[in-house]
Queue: 2 jobs
Job 1
Amino acid sequence: MIERLQLFPLQYKLIIANVVIVIIGAAGGTWLVAKLASGNDGLRLVLLAMGFALVGGWMSTLANIWVVRKTLKPLDDIAATADRVRHGDYTARTGADPFRDPQLEQIVVSFNGALDQVESDRDRIKDLVNRVIAAQEDERKRIARELHDDTSQVLFAQLLRVSAMKNSENEEIRAVAGQLEDMFAESMEAVRRLGHELRPPSLDDLGLREATGALVQRMRDRSGIDITYDASELRERTDEAIELVLYRVAQEALTNMWKHAHATAANVTLALVDDGIELVVEDNGRGFNPHGENRSDGKGLGLGVFGMQERVDLVGGTLEIEGDRNPGTRVRAWIPLTGDSGA
Ligand SMILES: Nc1ncnc2c1ncn2[C@@H]1O[C@H](COP(=O)(O)OP(=O)(O)O)[C@@H](O)[C@H]1O
Ligand SMILES: [Mg+2]
């Protein structure tokens, strides 16, 4: 019976509660009046009737408040769930309420269904990003190998031929050959640099410490910025996926520093912290708001910061960017050495 009543919509619950109170009031009142009428006491009768009306009114109000509160409670639950989802708990759902109102119950079911959809879409996006990053790495590796194995070899062969032409009797040919030799040497250097940027061989061969050191050195040469580097704590090699993520974060953070910060000095450190590896890249440049719009197109942060965040997420690490260090920016990535190393 109670179970059946609970299934009634809100307005029927209220009507039933009120009807019950009115019936009790009417029956009780009639009984009282009949009982007191024999006593012939007019004033007492009026006072009693008023008291009765007062009590009835209060009971009715309380009953209404109680029923409405109980019935609308799922709305509070929905708000609380939405809040948890907003703060990143994508598994939060609104539970069933024993005092459920069928219409609200329908809203709860639809709301939970929408959250299921959001969660599965999010998983799919994560999976896609994961695959895009993996495909990008494969492609970079392939192009770097091709540059090294094919393009560089062809350029080298041409360089040898041109060098040979420098022994020509003809002075004009010798002069042209000299110029060509310089051009080929420059091209080979450019191809070599490009290959290193795409996929530094030192990362696979020597590990994170050396590869990041070479990256810092290249950035010093290129930008003229005074960059210190300390990775003395890092003695052993670690998981390839972790090394690659940290290298890519360092690469992006240094490129951003060079492109956007107008810095004159920077520090890069790799250290062992809390059973993980920590990378810090800090500069003394103009800083920025990592949560706001930073680009002229008003689209907020670019792919670089997004990519750093996703890569770090994939190996279970954390990324913090402080852009208001006055002066400068500090990018800190930390990746646990134990546990899920993702890709
Ligand atoms: N070290 C930094 N100093 C100042 N601004 C920065 C720094 N790093 C990033 N930014 C700002 O954040 C924005 C987004 O960076 P990013 O996502 O790498 O995109 P992109 O480098 O392609 O512009 C940059 O356009 C720049 O305004
Ligand atoms: Mg960038």
Job 2
Amino acid sequence: MKITSADFIRGAEVKKDYPASDLPEIAFAGRSNVGKSSMINTLLGRKNLVRTSKSPGLTRKINFFLINNSIMFVDLPGYGYASVPMEVRRSWAPMVNTYLTERTQLAGVVVIVDARREPTELDEGLIEFLQFRGIPFVVAFSKADKLGQAERATMKRLVLQKWGSTISMEFFSAVSGLGKKPMWKRLFEFERDWRARPDTEMKNIEKHAESR
Ligand SMILES: Nc1nc2c(ncn2[C@@H]2O[C@H](COP(=O)(O)OP(=O)(O)OP(=O)(O)O)[C@@H](O)[C@H]2O)c(=O)[nH]1
Ligand SMILES: [Mg+2]
């Protein structure tokens, strides 16, 4: 997709601060430091739209970015890092939980897992939660530039064994750009499927009727 505009809208901790919008949203979730913010920059072809850092726990709010006035990217704070202060770690679960369960325009989630490590219990918990709620998601293995072909194949096997062959996954690198195209393809599918949902269609019809 040609990115004509990508702007930070706002950071929110509670629902009342989410931006008023009815555009579809793609959320990026995963452990702290796994590369969520870097992935957003790479997908958008922008170096510094989203701040990234070597130290975990940089993103502490739910950050909304408006892309091409047609879709919202949502950078979620990371979970599960011991060096992140306790009160921040405690606030993560309710913050992200509320967003994932109550944001009706959530079209899909990119669950980012470090390609060099096995998914943690928290990653598994998030995936099971998304499966249970019927929220579409893709597992993205970040930092794939640090793995060879054979190691990638091993990781793929492990994931298929764990979650079955219907799970969708991609390898991604913010350094080499690997996986950028297939990831965009997934995001378009999320958007397309979301727009085709009966509840969304109904809302669009109502809006159209109001504007006449
Ligand atoms: N080699 C390599 N390094 C990466 C890649 N993606 C991110 N990094 C590095 O990993 C570190 C963390 O990246 P971030 O994008 O800030 O991670 P995050 O998941 O947003 O972290 P929090 O906001 O703390 O949850 C930075 O030092 C990045 O440069 C990648 O694909 N390959
Ligand atoms: Mg971040």
